[in-house]
Amino acid sequence: MGIERKPINRGGIRSAGYDRSARALEIEFDNGSIIQHRGVGEEIARHFLSSSSPASYYKDTIQEEFSQRRIK
C-alpha cells in the first residue's frame, strides 16, 4: 500500500504525502511520475507540504539530498 498523498497542484507538483514511520516522502508530478524519497525528517516534510512554493523547496532541500526511487 502506497503513501496517502494530498493535492498540492502548484509548481508542477500534483500531490505529495509523508509516512512518518518510514521517513518517506512521496511526490507525484504533473507529468504523472511519482518519486519517493527515503530518510526525510518530519520537519522537512512538513515544511515542504505547507510551502507556498513547493517546487522551489523540493529543488533546494530535498531533490539531491535524499535517496530516491521512481515509483511510476
TrEMBL record:
Recorded protein name is KTSC domain-containing protein
Q: In what residue span(s) does the KTSC domain sit?
A: 13-66
Mind telling me which Pfam families this protein's record contains? KTSC (PF13619)
> Which species does the entry assign this protein to?
Niveibacterium umoris
Q: What superkingdom heads the lineage?
A: Bacteria
